[in-house]
Amino acid sequence: MRNTTKTLAIALTAGALTLGLTACGADSGSDKNGALVVAASPVPHAEILNYIKDNLAEKAGLKLEVKEFTDYNTPNTATEDGSVDANYFQNQPFLDDFNKKKGTHIVPVVTVHLEPLGLYSHSVKKADDLKSGGTVAIPNDTVNEARALKLLDANGIIKLKSGVGNEATPKDIADNPKGLKFKELEAAQLPRSLDDVDAAVINGNYAIEADLKPAKDALVLESPKDNPYGNFLAVKKGNEDDPRVKKLAKLLTSPEVKKFIKDKYDGSVIASF
């Protein structure tokens, strides 16, 4: 009798364990049928995603939820820990730097658009009119700071040392004819700094949020030709084949989205497909 009871207990335990594993498997499968949650910067990323959500997703059989973030760190950490399924806000040099420093495993899925980085000012109309000893605000994160300095170098405002890459800082300036000073600020704060500095190099998304029109208002603007800073949809490594991710990737590079970008942003955001 004791052996029979023991055998029954083992059988019940095994059955419960099997049921539990089956239930976990069911939950995992149902997740793939739920809404795809995507972290995005408000402009233009969330606007593009919401256009898809409102106009294209249902026909494609995609449930889409858009979560907006105003910083450049949380979307990747949220994607890494599974709080969201994907993100759409960044470029390859930024992602490479983030993965290296934070130990995350985020990978790109499809490149969608470019937001040209620009130099803006409330006090001068041309870059040549920047005063000697003036202050220029630039992003303080590694990649965007280097990107800002490269923009100034490409337009003859400064000259960087030969061979500097995506970690360039003001210390890598070889020639500074106007003796400009550089104020390093969080990227989101740069539009608000324009009343306090002579000029600021501002990321396209933050410029648009501040009602600046990069194609018209920038003193100098990045060229889209051979530009490595295209923004893409990204996921945690291993989730690239999620059917929902594939559907969104296809919609993000559709003719409808290309037209939406062209019509809404008038050259301030440029489709990369």
From TrEMBL:
Taxonomic lineage from the root: Bacteria, Bacillati, Actinomycetota, Actinomycetes, Kitasatosporales
Q: Which UniProt keywords apply?
A: Lipoprotein, Membrane, Palmitate, Signal
- Please give the start and end residues of each transmembrane region: none
Q: Which Gene3D superfamilies match?
A: Periplasmic binding protein-like II
Q: Which organism is it from?
A: Streptomyces lonegramiae
Q: Does the keyword Lipoprotein belong to this entry?
A: yes
Q: How does it sit in the membrane?
A: Lipid-anchor
**Protein location:** Membrane
- PANTHER family this protein is in? D-METHIONINE-BINDING LIPOPROTEIN METQ, METHIONINE-BINDING LIPOPROTEIN METQ
Signal peptide residue numbers: 1-25
Member of which family? Belongs to the nlpA lipoprotein family.
Q: Which SUPFAM superfamilies match?
A: Periplasmic binding protein-like II (SSF53850)
Q: What is this protein called?
A: Lipoprotein
One Pfam family, short name:
Lipoprotein_9
